Amino acid sequence: MIYTDKVMDHFQNPRNVGVLKDADGVGKVGNPVCGDMMTFYVKVKDDRLEDVKFQTFGCGAAIAVSSIVSEMAKGMTVEEAMKLTNDRVAEELGGLPKNKLHCSNLGADALHAAIEDYRSRKAGESEAKKKKGGGCCCPYCDGPLEGAVGLCRSCHVELRECPECHKATKAGEETCSHCGARLPSD
Questions:
Q1: What pTM did the predictor assign?
Q2: pLDDT tens digits, one per residue of 112-129
């Protein structure tokens, strides 16, 4: 199967690319096999997704999926957006080749992760704290962090503290995975 015109349009002219500095929720997912990484940022007002932005590192299908997911989700209620499925994403794009269907999973998963982050922030506690019973946790594997931010002992990702939200984020990244703030160079 070749890519549909809609997939090519969203790849070549992606919508809603960028960072929401004042995001209400941030979700980051990746596929270690193909190397695709997606970060979604959501702004919620009156239980609706008022704005959705994304940053994607990956293939054309991953970029197109991120673009269409952001368009589909904008204006939905939080509950409606949580029901967005990978099948619906692929259908909206007119289909994807079998070896690229995992990209539609990543798009929906990243959106859902951003919404879960929003819900956690709204409830006043992070999912990691609920799961681990408190303390600092790696934002990539939820493994416990002991002492100063540095290296996650579980997944071995090098971390540093964001100067804006003071949460652990991956060293070397341009923006914080939690709040979307631009990070100073290492």
A1: 0.65
A2: 999 999 998 888 754 444
